[in-house]
Predict the structure.
Amino acid sequence: MTSDLLILGKRIRHFRAQAGLTLDQLSAQVGVVPSQLSQIENGRREPKLSLLTALANALGTSVPDLLSQEAPDRRAELEVELDRLQRGTIYRDLKLPVVRSTKTMPTEALESIVGLHRDIERRAREAIATPEEARRANTALQKEQRAAGNYMPELDELAEDLVKRAGHTAGALMHKTVADMVELIGFQLIYVNDLPPSARSVTDLENKRIYIPPASIPGGHGLRAMALQAVAHRLLDHKRPENYADFLRQRLEINYFAASCLMPITASVAFLREAKRDRNIAIEDFRDAFGVTHEAAALRFTNLATTHLDLTCHFLRVNSDGGLFRGYENDGLAIPADQFGSIEGQSICRKWPARVAFERQNRTTEFYQYTDTPGGTYWDTTQTGQGEQGEFSISIGVPFEQAQWFRGRDTSARATSTCPDPECCRTPDAQARDKWSGKAWPSARLNPYVLAPLPTGTFPGVDQIEIYEFLEKHARA
């Protein structure tokens, strides 16, 4: 039973009561047995359009009015919310019996029960809105994506269909085309300079508007992705996330969809297959062909490499301090992880190209390196960049035998890493130890997000008060 069907049933019952008709009388008028109509009113059965039309005529209203998603009165609103809350995973995990709203239950009692449910949900959300829960959920999602080769074909099909309907055929996706795609789903794209700091975009479902920052900001190419991510939420019919796993999965899906629009599956696979035939795969070429960031091109390569190019690979985004910001592998590279399997924030070996690249004088070109590890030899292509949080590197790598398909395979740069052996790169040499042991007392810099819980609310990390104030302001504009 869904909330949509339950609201429909409540509205039918409301209009029947207004018309002064009994269940038997209305059933006789529309030609169905009373038991069937009772199931419809209780949200347990979906009526056909022909029956909906007959019901609207008999009740003196219209089909659109019956299908409105607004509960007909306060009592019905409470009953629908109670149904939604009890069907959620938070309540189901408590393994408590379902409370049914009966005709004899006072509205005050229903108010109290719904209020208790709301508080249970609020407390549960506060408990899950922590970095620890995020890391656990993210690790599980990473394992799932690794098993799938980081490939989500249904999203590629959905994206390519929308791109084609917008009239795009080749080359980089223009901002105007993205605006057209937004209109195809019934929304309007609006640029504003007062977006709440905790949100990348805000969608007004009531007035069918998608708000994103103005196109004139530095790095404006990212605006296309922001708009497309908002589109993905609508096309994928995302509901309010019930836990951090839901939130992260939705984030993964919208990021994937946006990349699939900016780098459509047919054109991307054709481009990469031709490059493989020429033994000239290069992330920078892939990036430039579709007008995206280097990181977006590298991540998109991981989506397509295994299924369409028969290549395994790994991806690393590493901060200048050596900490891993984001990672993926299905080629056996031993990415450092904590005891729970989480890789974010782990220190990358100083001899891996993702860190060696920061030591280069000329960073305008790709850096190529072979690295011998306990698990085998890998080849990497690495590019450095500058972001809001400082410098970072982006690495795409493959096992030694697959390097033959890539530009830069003839590099002479080679290193040996024995990590996680501490003697590899984490233990000072004997001379330094003898000189400084017991004579140094550094003050460690603690990243602020390590201990602080994320802001709570409907969506983890988003300040709900700011969002509502923003929508209220722009709804009047």
In short: The chain has three domains: 3-126, 134-262+444-477, 272-427. The domain at 3-126 is CATH 1.10.260.40 (434 Repressor (Amino-terminal Domain)). Strands lie at 188-191, 202-204, 209-212, 314-319, 324-329, 367-373, 376-387, 390-399, 414-416.
